[in-house]
Design brief:
- The chain is α+β, with helices and mostly antiparallel strands.
- The protein has one domain.
- 35% of the residues lie in helices and 28% in strands.
- The chain contains two helices and five strands.
- Strands 1-5-4 form a three-stranded antiparallel sheet, with no helix packed on it. A two-stranded antiparallel sheet has the order 2-3.
- Strand 2 and strand 3 form a beta hairpin.
- Helix 1 packs antiparallel against helix 2.
- The longest helix is centred in the first third of the chain and has 27 residues.
- The protein is elongated, with a radius of gyration of 20 Å.
- The mean pLDDT is 88.
Length: 113
């Protein structure tokens, strides 16, 4: 394996972690958002990574990391009865985002390493 292949593998992994950091920053920025229905609240997003193997010279495989997409988590946000809130629905409920700031901070620390 040549030195250039090693740099290509490392740079693809760093690019993938950069996407992870950007998604985490977006999640943290929207952690305190609320809405008047479950469908309109911000849902935490997570990147999906995949390993891509390519055949190189001399029957060696060269790998890289690829971002396959960004998916929304399916867990529900917290429901709160607050009829005085300007975003409250006709029943007086607001819905909080499903972002967990503690897990997002752990995700950010992990991606930065």
């Amino acid at each position: 394996m040549s030195l250039f292949n090693i740099f290509n593998i490392a740079s693809s992994g760093m690019s993938a972690q950069s996407v992870r950091l950007n998604v985490t920053a977006s999640n943290l920025a929207n952690a305190g958002s609320v809405g008047s229905s479950k469908k309109e609240i911000y849902r935490a997003r997570q990147p999906v990574f995949a390993t891509v193997m390519k055949e190189a010279q001399n029957d060696m495989s060269v790998g890289s990391v690829q971002v396959k997409g960004i998916v929304e988590t399916q867990t529900d946000g917290r429901e709160e009865y607050n009829p005085s809130h300007p975003m409250a629905n006709d029943k007086g409920y607001i819905y909080h985002s499903n972002v967990d700031p503690m897990s997002e901070m752990a995700n950010m620390i992990s991606a930065s390493h």
